[in-house]
Amino acid sequence: MILSNYHSHCTFCDGRSYPENYVVFALANRFRAYGFSSHAPLPFETNWNMSSTDMPEYLAEINRLKKKYADRIEIYTALEIDYLDWSYNASIPYFKNLPLDYRIGSIHFLPIADPLCEKNMAAIDGPFEDYDFAVKHYFHNEIQLYVRRYFDSLSHMIDDGGFDIVGHIDKIYMHGQHFADFSVSAPWYVKLLSDCLEKVAQKGLMLEINTKNWTKKQELFPHQSFLPLINELKIPVMVNSDSHYPDLINDGRPEAFELLKKAGFRSTRELIHGQWIDWDF
Asked: Largest CB tally within 10 Å, which of 21, 148, 156, 237?
């Protein structure tokens, strides 16, 4: 099993430690490659996104680490970029022109009004209370409406492109599963996610197997029940911990590999000397 992680957060966003501490821990655990993917700037300030004014320092710091540890580990510079709508996503010139090794496309917010600002966002991630508030106040207390809106936005994100990896593709179920009218096995839900997975395959994108919640909650993104379909669609995958702490960069990885094997996978997509290749495990 090759050791790598391409989704992690540090003090430039909501991560809990400095970038070099992640590298030191990765080296101590014999990682081959490590990628930093701070939450990209938004058109409004939040407590967990990077500020655009910090971008030059972020790029410089990761480049410094690349040079310092070049003979010991491959380090990569990336961003996790939110899809808000057609006007703000990974495909806009600001992100396309940044010197990044790869980009992760994710959804954490659904805009529910203009302009694009935090008070006009329905939260996907974060506390359950915020999610519950969004369902009740913006979607008539109907979880299906909220979930359908999420997958509509996800479909647009895949179409608009500008990124390499789809991040935690179905994180909508993390809080959604606590509603009586929601189930990851419900036909309407299976259809929504399956349609997006087919589009991921058609676009030739990569998909992360996100293990952030595995140890505490046995939650995988995508849900493990969809792994056979992902394998059938021949979507290339990698295992990412979405870590916010250095000591969690490998959290859930062995378990995820076992689930991948059971679903028929024989390789993961790895960034080796700057090129994405399939690595058999």
From this structure: 237
